[in-house]
Write a structure and sequence with these properties.
Strand order of the largest sheet: 1-3-2-14-13-12
Number of strands: 15
Order of helices and strands: EHEEEHHHHHHEEEEHHEEEEEEEH
Distance between the termini: 37 Å
Oligomer: single chain
Largest sheet: 6 strands, antiparallel
């Protein structure tokens, strides 16, 4: 693929590298760049008609997104009882291409907490200063770096629901008055400028909020998305399980489900997705950059997963159906969403979203170069993974709305 003239290896500093989406072009010529795929045993005229319609809806959504730079497209995989259906406007794209799943990672973190709860090692309504059941240590270290404001009132459930008031170090800048060298900037952005291959740790990310005294207010708080809250959950998983976070997720979910192409980025030197991959692009404030290469090690527990279309579909389907180690009863508890806006059109549960209603349960993800929708509809056994390999910072909600519109139309094809 031709590299745009405006692309540089070093990202523009105003494009926030720590961004992971909350639930909230010059136009491409779509028909010439259609990639169609279906299981060979299931090929039929009706299947081809459905895939063609899927591509039509992707084209309509891309037109609405109006992506700058003329690069990036939409790809979608649908998994239903009759098989998999894949369509893409990205030239040559295949289902097995890797992409950054971003905040869909939060579903694995939430699932780990629920699994530990099943084993009696975690209680959701304990505060994070409580002792871990059966152990003489608290859920979070009793250290200065974990002394976030109102810590003694924060429960594990509130962290899962984004209602703990924990400051989002990934998305929000540190106030200019803070007595820190990164004051007035995003910490992740600042650190990447010092060392592009820096390997971030959970401890250092939580320490930014703790040492600067940053908070959105005492819990129980209104819904406020927080990547740092999920980083804290990652630390809880490590202390309750006795394993590193990535080791626990591999051992309990990724390997048992046979997700051999899915992995977690933990090193700052691991900057490119494994081949083959969807290239990623980002734009905003008049800038357009190629951003496939990125340091995603900052996103422990909240956005560092890389996967493929079939494997992400397998994960979200298994989790929602109680077939991934988390019991059906606990999967149902995860789906008990609370409204996140006054209109009640979107909801967030225990690491799971329902937005828009009717598409199914799962999560969205947005990170440099990629926007992802992952949903499973229980009653119809319909799973959809949609990826735009261009993150448009100037119009995130517009992108989200266009993707949802296409996803709902595609779902209707299977009803």
């Amino acid at each position: 693929m031709k590299k745009p003239v405006a692309c540089k290896q070093r990202r523009h500093s105003r494009l926030h590298p720590g961004f992971v989406l909350s639930v909230l072009l010059p136009l491409m010529i779509f028909s010439a760049n259609v990639s169609l795929w279906a299981q060979p045993a299931l090929q039929s005229n009706s299947r081809q008609t459905i895939v063609n319609k899927m591509n039509d809806y992707l084209g309509e959504a891309l037109t609405a997104m109006n992506l700058p730079g003329g690069m990036g497209g939409l790809s979608v995989l649908v998994r239903v009882p009759s098989g998999d259906y894949f369509a893409s406007t990205v030239p040559g794209a295949k289902p097995e291409w890797h992409f950054r799943a971003a905040s869909v990672t939060k579903t694995t973190t939430a699932a780990a907490i629920m699994l530990l709860e099943q084993r009696g090692l975690v209680r959701l309504d304990d505060t994070v200063t409580s002792l871990i059941p059966g152990r003489n240590i608290p859920y979070l270290p009793d250290t200065r770096d974990y002394a976030v404001p109102h810590k003694e009132r924060i429960t594990i459930r509130q962290l899962l629901q984004h209602r703990a008031g924990v400051y989002d170090v990934g998305n929000d800048a540190v106030p200019a008055e803070a007595a820190q060298p990164y004051a007035g900037q995003g910490y992740i952005e600042w650190m990447n400028e010092q060392d592009p291959e820096h390997s971030f740790s959970i401890d250092e990310l939580v320490a930014v909020a703790a040492n600067c005294g940053l908070t959105y207010g005492p819990p129980p708080a209104k819904y406020h998305y927080s990547n740092t809250g999920y980083s804290m959950l990652g630390k809880i998983i490590e202390r309750a399980s006795g394993k590193s976070l990535d080791e626990f997720l591999y051992a309990e979910f990724i390997r048992p489900l046979g997700l051999s192409s899915t992995y977690l980025v933990v090193s700052g030197k691991d900057r490119m997705p494994r081949s083959p991959y969807l290239p990623g692009y980002s734009s905003g404030e008049g800038q357009f950059l190629e951003t496939t290469e990125d340091n995603a090690s900052y996103a422990h527990a909240e956005g560092n997963m890389v996967s493929t279309f079939p494997e992400l579909a397998a994960w979200i389907r298994a989790l929602m159906r109680g077939e991934a180690g988390v019991s059906p009863e606990n999967a149902a508890r995860m789906r008990e969403v609370l409204p996140t806006n006054p209109e009640g059109t979107a909801g967030y549960g225990l690491g799971i979203t329902e937005n828009p209603k009717g598409l199914g349960y799962g999560h969205d993800g947005g990170i440099m170069g990629y926007f992802t929708v992952a949903r499973h509809h229980l009653e119809s056994d319909f799973t959809i993974i949609m990826v735009c390999n261009h993150l448009k910072f100037d119009d995130l909600y517009g992108m989200q709305g266009a993707a949802y519109g296409a996803a709902m139309k595609i779902k209707a094809l299977f009803e």
